[in-house]
Every structure is written in structure tokens, then in C-alpha cells.
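Suppose a colleague, Dr. K., hands you the sequence of a protein chain of 113 amino acids and asks what its three-dimensional shape might be. Before reaching for any lab equipment, you can write down a predicted structure in C-alpha cell form. Begin with the sequence itself:
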Amino acid sequence: QLQLVESGGGLVQPGGSLRLSCAASGFTLDYYVIAWFRQAPGKEREGVSCISSLGGRSNFADSVKGRFTISRDNAKNTVYLQMNSLLPEDTAVYYCNLGAIAWGKGILVTVSS
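The predicted structure, expressed as C-alpha cells, is then:
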């Protein structure tokens, strides 16, 4: 069964860091673009970042540029989102996405003092 499972979320203080992981099962990530989305309370889901199949290209929303990085380890079938200098407005449920094929269930990130 094809699945994406996020991990690594939690509560962090402003200015802190978290690394989210998106582990795939039931298929091999190697050939796919993987994206991260987030949805804050009362807001629409928005794209955060995406990474090409071999990891050579990535894109970021303006709101996270310079603070977030994305990487992948195809050997581990996992994509990572490193989030630094976190702000309260980064508080959201973060989702891993494989286009129209699959979504993870999401993981909560709360940035608060």
C-alpha cells in the first residue's frame, strides 16, 4: 500500500529549528517530485517547498526562503524539510505530497514561547 508518513513535528520556541521527515512505503521515491504543504488554522493549504527526483532542484515559498531547506535520501526513501529560524506564523499542520497520487496525514508544528 502506497503511503507517506510525516514525523518530526512538535512544539518549538520562536527562533528554533525542527526537521520534518516524510517516509514513503509501498513505492520508491526515486523518480518523483515530492512537495511539502502546510495548513495553518483558519487558512487554506499552501505549498512550502518541493524537490526534484534527484534532488538537484528545489523551490520554496517566499515566506520560508532562507530559513527552510529540503533534501532527500533516496536510499532511505525519505524526504526531509529542515526548518530553521522558526516564526509563530510557521505554526501549521505540515503535509508531505506526491502530486495527485498521495498525501501524508500531516504533522503538527507549533511555534510558540
